[in-house]
Amino acid sequence: MSALGVYRPGNTVLHRLPPGVKLIGLGVVILVISLAVRSLTALGIAVVGVAAVYALAGIGPVTAWRQLRPMRWVLLLIFVFQVVFTDWHRALIVCGVLALSVALAAVVTLTTRTTDMLDTITRALGPLRRFGFPTDLIAIALALAIRTIPLMVEIVRQVDEARQARGLRPGPRILVAPVVLAALRTADGFADTLTARGLD
After folding, report:
1. Same domain, 108 and 134
2. For 155-182, how does the pLDDT look when each residue is reduced to its tens digit (9 = 90+)?
3. Residues 92 and 181 in one domain
4. What DSSP element (H or E) covers 109?
5. How many whole angstroms separate alpha carbon 109 and alpha carbon 117?
6. Where in the cell is it found (predicted)?
7. Domain of 59, in residue numbers
């Protein structure tokens, strides 16, 4: 199973921060990176900053690499697309910002229990109940989304390993089609589970 996004117990500053603070901070930092990184120099500074966050969380380079390794083919495809339609400079910045955003999201999930995160989100949505919003169902949807991210990464990893075992070259037909089919099967499994529990 992929190690991406799996909670790692610890007693660092980031582990002790309230989940709400981490979620808000994640959104703010990703927004700032997306708006501020417009050059390779700025990208380098952002990389150093994210590395410092990982060090602050007590997460070593091996675990950090595992957060991005499953994305390498996606990043490669995006890089090629950007090079074709823009230039290599823009391609590096776009892929760098995307990789840093995923890395930061991984820090939050690595240092926060999913149950704590969902409890925080449910409490934040509490005032919406008076307007008839199904906050419990929204929390379930968020739980599924959080669970699906590492699951989809794992599916991509399995498909890529199967490709390598068969000696096939990477390509859209080889990688995308099996991933889409596996994702649809996973979605059907989620739907059947929710229906069985009366949440259809």
Report:
1. no
2. 777 777 887 788 777 666 676 777 777 7
3. no
4. helix 88-111
5. 9
6. Membrane
7. 1-112
The residue written with tokens 């096939």 in the block is 168
Whole-model pTM?
0.71
Dmax (CA) for the chain in angstroms is: 58
Q: Structure tokens of 30?
A: 């990703």
Q: Do 85 and 136 lie in a common domain?
A: no
Q: Provide the token pair at 47.
A: 């990389």
CB of 15 closer than 8 Å to CB of 111: yes
Question: How far is residue 43 from each of residues 72, 78, 79, 90, measured CA to CA in Å?
Answer: 18, 17, 15, 11
Q: How many CB atoms lie within 10 A of CB 91?
A: 19
- Taking only the tens place, the pLDDT of each residue in 8-50 is 888 898 999 998 899 899 989 999 999 999 999 999 999 999 9
Q: How many domains does the chain have?
A: 2
The Cα 76–Cα 85 span in angstroms is: 14
> Which region holds residue 167: left if phi is over 0, alpha if psi is between -120 and 50, else beta?
left
